[in-house]
Amino acid sequence: MNYTIATLASHSCLQILKGAKDEGFATLAIASKDRALFYRRFNFIDKIIPVAEYKDIYKLNTELKKQKVIIIPHGSFVAYLGEDYDKKLKLPHYGNKKVLEWEGDRLKQTEWLNKAGLLTPKLISHPSLINQLVIVKFFGAKGGSGYFLAQSEKEFIIKIEKFKGEKYIIQEYMVGTPVYLQYFYSRINKQIELMGIDRRYETNIDGLSRIPGKFEKNIDFDPTFTVIGNFPLVIRESLLPEVYNMGERVVAVSNKIIPSKGLYGPFCLETIVTKNQKFYCIEISCRIVAGTNLFITGSPYTDLTYGEPMSTGRRIAREIKEAIRLNRLQEILD
């Protein structure tokens, strides 16, 4: 195959490039110099370009274009390249770059999810209105870093001090089970697929739950929500119709509000399931998420569809391969 699948050497790079190689593509990783040696361990990566910093990818636009590179974005793109990377990167890019504006703005996210008929936590419009437990979240892809809890305006003012200049939302804290729904929407066959389900392991909030109650009163530190890993989940089969329905509604609304192609490819609805088995969507990620790394050889849900190992990374590559076969590649690149 004449095309090369490329991505930044971080986040879900291994899964993406393994899947691309399984589908017959050449593969390329752009790696920071201190990590290049690590990525050389994997023989499914054909070429590694070491860079001083990830933003140096912009200097490679001309070189990579000659190699017929297709870029697969993941969570590290916004984190390391900046929110305007979609304008600076001049390479064929899988997925609609315009969804980044909606993903990066938490108020727009909520508008989108509500238009799709999804339940969402209540937003608190001003710190003076805090009269319950809330979670404060910052804009952009940060893997939960910096999120904090507050129960009053006074507590909020103290904690927000070290985040001056950061954009944030104040969201009702939902009590329930975190359930992260990994989807893939194909522009080629117009179908939604459930690729897997996970929950995150966060430091230090998950560690706090292991402290015996008799010691808790002597502990004086705040929970944090930085993601360090993921657990696989299988949910009750009776919940699956709503899971598929939510994904389909989110895609349908995206086609109306996000020009010109809406949302397609991998995405994740990050939800809390309450005691009455209702899904509340707390965030949407409009790209491959790190939780899909659990399923490099497939998940229970991809087994139902494919009967062969199918990661999200491989599903992306198969979509690209099918688009090439049908002469429809430009429909899925931006």
UniProtKB/TrEMBL annotation:
Q: Which Pfam families match?
A: DUF1246 (PF06849), DUF1297 (PF06973)
Describe the location of the ATP-grasp domain by residue ranges.
Answer: 97-325
Q: Enumerate the InterPro entries for this protein.
A: ATP-grasp (IPR011761), ATP_grasp_subdomain_1 (IPR013815), IMP_biosynth_PurP (IPR023656), IMP_biosynth_PurP_C (IPR009720), IMP_biosynth_PurP_N (IPR010672), PreATP-grasp_dom_sf (IPR016185)
What are the BP-aspect GO terms?
IMP biosynthetic process
Read off the PROSITE patterns from this record: ATP_GRASP
Q: Which domain of life is it from?
A: Bacteria
Write one Gene Ontology MF term.
Answer: ligase activity, forming carbon-nitrogen bonds
Q: Which UniProt keywords apply?
A: ATP-binding, Ligase, Magnesium, Manganese, Metal-binding, Nucleotide-binding, Purine biosynthesis
- What cofactor requirement does the entry state? Mn(2+); Mg(2+)
Q: Which HAMAP family match?
A: IMP_biosynth_PurP
What is the name listed in the Swiss-Prot or TrEMBL entry for this protein?
ATP-grasp domain-containing protein
Give the source lineage, highest ranks first: Bacteria, Candidatus Gottesmaniibacteriota
